[in-house]
Structure prediction request, 64 residues.
Amino acid sequence: MHQLQSNPMKGAKELPIKMTDKRWPSEDGWVKMQNVVTLEDGTKVNVHFVYNKITGQFDDFKFK
Prediction:
């Protein structure tokens, strides 16, 4: 999880989902991202978050 905290974009992929939430409108640069992190014990954690391509901001991290 340290990788994700220090650099959320490393290994992240943009998902082909148009942002429709009014808090993160796609027309303002927001995109849905996914990063799969492998823990030391081999467990994989799927992390979704939103990223603004214009401002470089991150928000709404969800761990699955």
